[in-house]
Amino acid sequence: MTPLGIHLWLVNLDEPEVATAVTLSAAEQARAERFVFERDRRRYLAAHRALRSVLTQEAGMRVDAAFDIGAHGKPRLSVPGACSFNMSHSAHMALIGLADSGDIGVDIEVRHAVGDLHDLARHHFSAQEAQALALIRQEDDALTAFLQCWTRKEACLKALGTGLSLPSHVFTTGIAPVEARVCIPFDAGEALVDVTSVHVGIDILAATAKLISLGAEASR
């Protein structure tokens, strides 16, 4: 469990038997068929089977249950008072998060080369984060810091449920792998989100986030 009270499952999507007995919904199966490459289709199926398996075992969800889908595509259980969950995948790995209460977000990035990470940081990070990244001279350390910050921002946006409809440069999570409370401008007020980086494996960067308060309530 992370310091934010989020239980995590790390899944290797290239394992030959990832929850193969789990049946997906018609919508999930239809989306899988739209993938051009077989590897991507197989990994998508494995990720969603693993998610349903976790929710069935840990939350008592019917294995064939339908999800409610939010305005920006975030799924949730339709049962009142149900736990919250989130999933992220990168390359051959997936990260599943589950919490008893509160909206959560998780994000994972398998370490990979990034073109001009400083240019990307200028566009997607806050000025404070971009400046902190620019001070790191060692290339490998800069890549680690970039991916750490990226996962922290993605986890926050997923906890908030906005996806990429909210620009990631308007709030600061920091590039260091520490727990932080983040203020995110949102509608009439601001959202408060707790975020932390988590160690889940070698060459894998990950973060979890939990929504604390939203809108005018957060600004008081």
Describe this structure in words.
- It is a single chain.
- 39% of the residues are buried.
- Strand 7 and strand 8 form a beta hairpin.
- The strands form three sheets. The protein has a four-stranded antiparallel beta sheet. Strands 1-5-4 form a three-stranded antiparallel beta sheet, covered by helices on one side.
- The model has no long low-confidence stretch (mean pLDDT 90).
- By secondary structure, the chain is an alpha+beta fold.
- The chain has six helices and nine strands.
- The two termini are 30 Å apart.
Quick structural gist:
The chain has six helices and nine strands; from the N terminus they run E-H-H-E-E-E-E-E-H-H-H-E-E-E-H. It has helices at 26-33, 38-59, 117-124, 127-134, 139-160, 216-219; strands spanning 7-12, 68-69, 75-76, 84-90, 93-99, 104-110, 180-186, 189-199, 204-213.
List the helices and strands and how they pair.
Blueprint: E1 7-12, H1 26-33, H2 38-59, E2 68-69, E3 75-76, E4 84-90, E5 93-99, E6 104-110, H3 117-124, H4 127-134, H5 139-160, E7 180-186, E8 189-199, E9 204-213, H6 216-219
Antiparallel strand pairs: 1-5, 2-3, 4-5, 6-9, 7-8, 8-9
Helix pairs in contact: 1-2
